[in-house]
Amino acid sequence: MSAPPGFRAEFRATLRVALPLALGNLAMMAMGFTDAVMVGRLGAQALAAAGLGAAVYFTIGVAVQGVVTAVAPLAAHAIGSGDRAAAGRIAGAGLLLAGLLSLPFAAVVLAVDRLLLVFGYDAALAADIGRFLGAAAWGAPAFIAVGTTRSLLIALGHQRVVMLSLFAAIASNAGLNWVLIYGNLGMPALGIVGSGYATSINIWLSLMVHVLAIRCLPSLQGLAPWRAAWLLPRREIGRLLRLGLPIAGMMLLESGLFLAGGLLSGLLGAAALGAHQIALNCASITFMVPLGFAQAATVRVAHELGAGRPATARLAGFMALGLGAGFMLLAAVLLWTFPRAIIGVYIDVDAEANRELVQTALRLFVVAALFQVVDGMQVIAAGALRGFRDTAVPMLLAGVGYWGIGFAGGWILGFPLGLGVYGLWCGLGMGVGVVAVLLSVRLHLRSAAPPLTPAAAGHT
């Protein structure tokens, strides 16, 4: 029996939005890989400083950026209801908030080296991290603003612009690193500081590409979000904060969980930390695809709700959930079947010096394979719920699952029960699984509920 026309149409619509976004997310991972390879030529300490500095920068930045990603569901809802002017005002509010939020973001980034000294970090390593972040902080305003412009482009169906800009950023990032780290084309060799400046310049270039697209694409004419920003759209700012602050909180809860997992792994020795980093990097790569489906679910659900089609909005949410889970099932099979070959991309698996690390990583890959599907489900369910303008309750559910079960369970299994980093990962996996179940049930209940009236929707 063939699928009903609505099912087939939503299948195509979801893939049309999700695939470019997933490819763009993978491009961001490629930039991180390029940075690691190019900075790694400077030595182990430079690699460690740039790696940890970038991790801190992007963890904080993505959490702050979460506030303005609320532009995507709100603008998509406005477009679905035929109110283009509202989409422009929402994006203008996002740009204004981006400027305001960039100040505390930069201030925290600039204070990281001093905080690391308080926690007992080696002074030379903390100083190198501070030098990298001091250069990267110049990109803070653009980093948050890109969250606004990217969300607007996705909401209006221009996800290919987002994808192409990210692929172009891979090349520009590599070129800037080559010039600024090593001192080519007559520039001084700035080393790790050059990598920080390359990051900043690249973010500003990405913002310029987005702005040019918004100004030049015929379908985006008349939105003028920068003009709306000058008019101080207080109502839209309030809507963004109500929807976006819980999104930021949820992002911080999730990224903080795995950052804490890395810190705890370091207490168990170099082999445990190395295995954790390899397994987490692989899991992060596969995660980029369901993240694209989550972004697609947000705008598809919001657009259909704005157009007054709640049944199609429900279908859009579960279509993204099913497609993302299917991909992650394939990823799980890959991690389960070829763990040694994948680990071999990172280190020499036959070297005796790496024996403990390899054995530990092989055990972690079993856990990573087992929680691939639920990891994809939780992020897509959260994305679909954002389309329903439901963010506060999902944040609370995530806090219970990630920290009440994931972190607490991982610590108990890893330390008091003596299972080490394997127990830590089992706990983290259980936490992610619980969040996936809770958010999927929440999506079912929320999408089955009567839709908000237009008046109520405007005040959520």
Largest sheet: none
Q: What would the average pLDDT be, to the nearest integer?
A: 89
Low-confidence stretches: 453-460
**Beta-strand residue fraction:** under 5%
Q: Count up the domains.
A: 2
How many E-type strands? 0
Helical residue percent band: over 70%
Q: Cα-atom Rg, whole angstroms?
A: 22 Å
The shape, in one word, is: globular
Order of helix and strand elements from N to C terminus: HHHHHHHHHHHHHHHHHH
Question: Strands, helices and their partners?
Answer:
Layout: H1 5-40, H2 44-68, H3 71-80, H4 84-118, H5 123-136, H6 140-155, H7 159-182, H8 192-216, H9 225-230, H10 234-266, H11 270-306, H12 310-337, H13 339-343, H14 355-370, H15 372-387, H16 392-414, H17 420-448, H18 454-457
Structure, described:
Mean pLDDT is 89; it is low at 453-460. This protein starts with a helix and ends with a helix. The protein has 460 residues and is an all-alpha fold. The chain has two domains: 16-232, no CATH class; 248-460, no CATH class. It is built from 18 helices and no strands.
Keywords:
460 residues, mainly alpha, globular, disordered C terminus
Short recap of the structure:
With 460 residues, this protein is mainly α.
